Amino acid sequence: MTANVHNPDQYMASLRTIIAGGRKRIGLLIGAGAPAGMAKDDGSYPLIPAVAGLTDLVLAALAPTYGKQIAALKAELPKHDVETILSRVRTLSKVIGTTKVHDLDGQGFETFGRAICDEIGKIVNVRLPKNHSAYTDVVNWIAGTSRDHAVEIFTTNYDLLLEEAFEFARAPYFDGFTGAREPFFDPVSVSSNDLPVRWTRLWKLHGSLGWCASDRDEVVRTGNSSATHLVFPEHLKYDQTQKAPYSALLDRLKAFLSTSDTLLISIGFSFADAHVAARVSEGLAANPSASLFAFQFKTLKEEEFARDLASKRPNFSVYARDGGMMNGIDAPWQIPTDLPSKDWGPIRASYWGSPSSGDPAQFLLGAIEPFAKFFASSRTPQIFSAAVPAAAPVAGASTAVGLVPHSGAA
Fold first, then answer.
1. Which helix (H) or strand (E) holds 11?
2. How many structural domains comprise the chain?
3. Alpha-carbon distance 410 to 400, whole Å?
4. Confidence at residue 175, expressed as pLDDT on a 0 to 100 scale
5. CA end-to-end distance (rounded Å), the chain
6. pLDDT tens for residues 108-150?
7. Whole-angstrom Cα distance, residue 332 to residue 36?
8. Average pLDDT of 286-312?
């Protein structure tokens, strides 16, 4: 029996058709891998380090003051990333009072938590490159099409790069806050989602630079990038005043996936975040007409969290550098010898090629820069038949593999 393979030409042709039009309800899920894959003005990488790099920088900066506590927390935690450590620090600050744990009382851990957020804020408080960036490509794609539904962006990142890209393009967006002196979070507007379609929705699932707690213990947006209110969903049970931003935004993600004929596209997100992954899984399970396309930077074998979700949810598709997982079928990529149409060469080059000299040809859209260019150029005129011609078959392909993405994304 011939092994299954996936043909990226067919999947990308269908996706290109979807994102070029304005009829589909589309959302983006953007993780820490996105700014980590963007270049600085001088051409060096990363613009902002991903979680592992961010963790190293933050903990190194705090080690002279909190080295003992960091070592003790690492010894008792299953994961050592900065978000997990901050979560434990915030938990201890709320529950231990005057009792000391690892030589700090509740007030001490509250100060420790603020120090972590301050260090995160220093690292992620960067500006977009002056000439061009992947985020400006994404915003140009969003603003360049008349749409039936607003694009919704869900991000776990704390930086203000997306906000900067929208403001540079003078493209309106709504982040859940309203007001002038101390913009407040309005969960009703988030849940009702009845703003004009041309306003992109930008949901910061893990908080943001510029957020802080007001005198009334409500989260407000200050406009000051030194403010860092980074609280994660698991802490809501300890402080109900913080429920509105974080739980409401995660509920919005689930509601988005519960809407019929919806496509969520992720980039730079590993799905290791249990809170976000759980909402995604619940939404896809409850609504078979929704689809999620996960564009992953690593090989399919290395993307274990995305593969695990895709094995349980047939409407979850994984696009890794060496293969894909569609409708639950894990298979390598195989490019046909012939082009689907005479003008498809430049289009294929946008998603298939060698990232650098000496690398084997691979699927490229797991990196934010080619991903964003593919979206921005999707409205370029092209001629393409919906089905690959019989003269250019893909060896081993079968109807089980599927010639187009999951039907919910058509």
1. helix 8-20
2. 2
3. 17
4. 96
5. 30
6. 999 999 999 899 989 999 999 998 999 999 999 999 999 999 9
7. 26
8. 96
Q: What is the model's pTM?
A: 0.88
Tokens at residue 285, please?
């399970």
Element of type H or E holding 208: strand 208-209
CA dihedral 358, 359, 364, 368 (to 10 degrees): -80
User: What pairs with residue 264 in β-bridges?
Assistant: 27, 292
pLDDT value for 402: 33
Residue 15 · residue 139 · CB < 8 Å: no
Residue of 319, 322, 309, 314 whose CA lies nearest to 287 = 314
Rounded CA-CA distance 142/147 in Å is 9
Q: Is residue 2 part of a domain?
A: no
CA angle 103, 108, 111 (to 5 degrees): 140
Do 362 and 35 meet the contact criterion of CB atoms below 8 Å apart? no
Which residues constitute the domain of residue 74? 51-124
What is the maximum alpha-carbon separation in the chain?
76
Q: Are strands 173-174 and 316-319 parallel, antiparallel or unpaired?
A: unpaired
Task: Clarify whether residues 295 and 346 are in a common domain.
Answer: yes
Amino acid at 364: L
User: Where is the domain boundary, 99, 124, 149?
Assistant: 124
Distances (CA, A) of 6 to 326, 330, 332, 368, 384: 8, 9, 6, 22, 19
According to the model, what pLDDT value does residue 83 have? 86
pLDDT in tens, 202-253: 999 988 988 888 877 788 898 877 766 665 555 544 444 346 688 899 999 9
Whether residue 263 lies inside any domain: the answer is yes
**227 Cβ contact list (under 8 Å, min separation 6):** 121, 209, 210, 211, 212
Q: Whole-angstrom Cα distance, residue 89 to residue 101?
A: 10
pLDDT value of position 330: 94
The pLDDT of residue 233: 55
The burial of 354, by beta-carbon neighbours within 10 Å (0-12 exposed, 13-18 middle, 19 or more buried), is given as exposed
Phi, psi of 31 (to 5 degrees): -110, -175
